[in-house]
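[audit] Reproducing an earlier prediction to check determinism. Same input, same settings, fresh worker. If the tokens differ from the archived copy the diff job will pick it up downstream; this log only records the rerun itself.
[audit] input (152 residues):
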Amino acid sequence: MKIDAKAIKELAELLEETGLNEIEVANGEKSIRVSKGGGVVVSGNGNGHPEIMSSNPEMPQMANTDAPDTTALSHPGAVTSPMVGTAYMQSDPDSPPFVQKGDKVAAGDTLMIIEAMKVMNPIKAEKAGTVSQILVNDNHPVEFGDVLMVIE
């Protein structure tokens, strides 16, 4: 069976861009699944059994062992991610950040952008206040429900 390394690489890049943990694409009876933790599975190879190619065992996987900030999680001013994607703190690399710690914001102000599936989604302040914590880094993946920042 011929392995489409280019397709696998493109799917892996899409995982990184979107912050997803797994993606699967099917074309007829053939499918490719790329998973951050489980390797790659190519199925529909003609004999009815999937071929499994494990991820490189020499590449250690980094576990997130940081304890969540319970203060930020329960804070009434916590701004959470409405989607999985990549957080951007400014509209383009040459622009200043939308907000910084200590900035005063009004309801409706853009706080950051989350890119999901090549769509830029502005994250807006739901209430006025002062940005007391920014809990994400520019150009880093975020998950649904992650606390992005706190407005007091």
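[audit] rerun output stored. Observation attached for the diff report: The chain is about 10% helix and 35% strand.
[audit] end
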